[in-house]
């Protein structure tokens, strides 16, 4: 009895209540269309803290018990990346809709297997690419559709900080899903060529920093720098086009998006036989559009619930999740080559 009744509150469980999972617990506990019924985590102290704040929520140390006996219709999988496939698989096999944290899985094969399971059972399967729900990114998408940037030359993303250092994946699989998902979503294409170099500076046999270059079929190029070993915290995306540069700084709460109407492009032809142009440098306004203040995770959860209720695909669907995993796997392959 999931979805057709508009007044029905979707019974949701959260699996994994760590740094990030506890945000789901908070958001879902106050979502109008949701009844948060259960939380699972092997860490007893995390469950005790959930019970203190939400006494009505059932807690489980084993996600299989939550899936089997909590009466959930849907689950959020917010465990560490290496467990996503097994946990999501168990939920789908039990007939539950699933919202899986990024990175969706660690192989394309596992991602495809989950998609097949969900399709066979007509279940909603969504991947939590949070930045697709960030009001700044949504505004940038609208600006690009309006042609504000002109022809896009390149995208340049930087995501650096000290930590949080993962034990199961490298910095690319942990951090780059955000940038790759934005690139694929904004451009509507996947890269045809990938180059990457990375370094294991902490000597744990996993890359802690990487520089990634991408080339898309349209000719647009992209660069992503990720590091969890950098004292400078950056969360930036620049989109440089023929008419303007769009700069997104997720750490700038006052002006997260700025438009620089400055740039360079070909001007009048000097010699048509040789295709020589006089290049024109434009120096224009800098504009910061008003961005709605709304928590991306709340918008993301609403999309998950709406997709189940209305039998539609969410914005961040599992196919995009798999496309992102495919790019991450190719980045890993490019790293090995380099
Ligand atoms: N979308 C975003 O913006 C965003 C931000 C941060 C983290 N994440 C993602 O969220 C996931 C969790 O990250 P985190 O920072 O919370 O990690 P974390 O290590 O703090 O938390 C993971 C939790 O999962 C629990 N866990 C492990 N296996 C479990 C299982 N089988 N059943 C139930 N619980 C289990 C652990 O005990 C821990 O409490 C990762 O995939 C990460 O990439 C996404």
List unreliable stretches of 5+ residues. none
Oligomer: single chain
The number of strands is 16
How many structural domains? Answer: 2
Outline, from the CA principal axes?
globular
What CATH architecture of the largest domain would you give?
Answer: 2-Layer Sandwich
What structural keywords apply?
338 residues; alpha/beta; 2 domains; 8-stranded mixed β-sheet; 16 strands; 33% helix; binds nicotinamide-adenine-dinucleotide
Walkthrough of the structure:
An eight-stranded mixed beta sheet has the order 8-9-10-7-11-12-13-16, covered by helices on one side. A six-stranded parallel beta sheet has the order 3-2-1-4-5-6, with helices on both faces. Strands 14-15 form a two-stranded antiparallel ribbon. The mean pLDDT is 95. The protein is built from nine helices and 16 strands. Helix 4 (84-93) runs parallel beside helix 5, helix 5 (108-120) packs antiparallel against helix 9 and helix 7 packs across helix 9. It has helices at residues 21-29, 44-53, 63-69, 84-93, 108-120, 135-145, 171-187, 296-310, 318-337, and strands at residues 10-15, 34-40, 58-60, 74-77, 97-101, 125-128, 152-162, 193-199, 209-215, 221-227, 229-241, 245-249, 257-260, 263-271, 276-282, 286-287. The radius of gyration is 22 Å and the shape is globular. Bound molecules: nicotinamide-adenine-dinucleotide. Nicotinamide-adenine-dinucleotide binds at residues 15-21, 40-43, 46, 63, 78-81, 83, 87, 101-102, 128, 130, 174. Nicotinamide-adenine-dinucleotide is lined by residues 15-21, 40-43, 46, 63, 78-81, 83, 87, 101-102, 128, 130, 174.
């Amino acid at each position: 009895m999931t979805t057709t009744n508009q007044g029905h509150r979707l019974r949701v469980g959260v699996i994994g209540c760590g740094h990030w999972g506890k945000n789901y617990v908070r958001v879902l506990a106050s979502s109008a269309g949701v009844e948060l019924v259960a939380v699972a985590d092997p860490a007893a102290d995390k469950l005790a803290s959930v019970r203190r704040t939400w006494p009505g929520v059932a807690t489980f140390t084993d996600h299989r018990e939550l899936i089997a006996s909590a009466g959930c219709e849907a689950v959020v999988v917010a465990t560490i990346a290496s467990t996503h496939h097994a946990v999501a698989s168990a939920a789908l096999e039990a007939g539950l809709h699933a919202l899986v944290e990024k990175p969706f899985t660690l192989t394309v094969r596992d991602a495809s297997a989950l998609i097949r399971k969900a399709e066979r059972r007509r279940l909603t399967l969504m991947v939590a690419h949070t930045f697709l729900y960030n009001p700044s990114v949504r505004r940038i998408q609208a600006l690009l559709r309006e042609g504000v940037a002109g022809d896009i030359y390149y995208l340049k993303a930087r995501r650096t900080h000290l930590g949080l250092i993962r034990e199961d994946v490298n910095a690319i699989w942990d951090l780059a899903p955000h940038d790759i998902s934005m690139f694929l979503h904004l451009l509507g294409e996947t890269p045809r060529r990938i180059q990457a170099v990375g370094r294991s500076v902490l000597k744990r046999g996993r890359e802690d920093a990487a520089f990634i270059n991408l080339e898309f079929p349209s000719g647009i190029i992209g660069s992503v720098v990720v590091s969890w070993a950098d004292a400078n915290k950056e969360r930036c995306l620049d989109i440089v086009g023929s008419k303007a540069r769009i700069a997104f700084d997720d750490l700038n709460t006052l002006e997260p998006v700025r438009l620089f109407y400055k740039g360079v492009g070909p001007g009048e032809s000097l010699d048509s036989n040789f295709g020589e142009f006089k290049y024109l440098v434009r120096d224009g306004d800098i504009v910061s559009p008003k961005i709605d203040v709304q928590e991306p995770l709340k918008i993301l959860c609403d999309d998950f619930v709406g997709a189940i209720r209305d039998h539609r695909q969410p914005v961040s669907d599992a196919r995009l999740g798999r496309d992102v995993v495919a790019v991450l796997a190719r980045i890993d392959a490019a790293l090995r080559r380099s």
